[in-house]
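Protein modeling request. Please complete all fields; requests missing the sequence field cannot be processed.
Requester role: graduate student
Desired output: 3D structure, token encoding
Chains: 1
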Amino acid sequence: MNSSIDPTYFDRLYAANPDPWQFTTSAYEREKYDVTLAALPARCGSAFEIGCSIGVLTRRLAERCDTLLAVDVAEAALAAARRRCGDQANVTIARMQVPREWPAARFDLILFSEVLYYLSSDDLMRTAALARESIVPGGQALLVHYTLPTDYPATGDRAADGFIAASGFAPIRQRRAALYRLDLLRA
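Delivered output (187 residues):
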């Protein structure tokens, strides 16, 4: 597939089901979120979460961050994330289509949880370059991706490997589970 997944794909998913991946009820998601958070330092200054969906991980991540910018392309998902995280003063939730839109800020942590495989090769390379430009020296990027075959532009492995190669970030922790991989990288 030569192009990134169009945002209308996600609009349709959320119109049909407000929690299309069962983030609130799935044991897989709960375990993956536990592992994701365990890979991170106890405190993160400024964080950028790309693909926040309905904010389940966002809520948990917010407890560790001084500031957290959480973005998604689907307005229905963002509305749910705003409700879920509305009492978190350190969280900003915004609509953004990465990499076409990117914040003019610097971050200690950039989190890509199950999003990079939705991007075309060109958009993946552009995302890696933008991450490299906006992460503070010594900052971290965390990639967590489903690894079984999908009909997305890339597999989780190809997306993660491509991002790592294009970003120039150094892997400091990698873990492979039955259905996903986790890559913690340092700028």
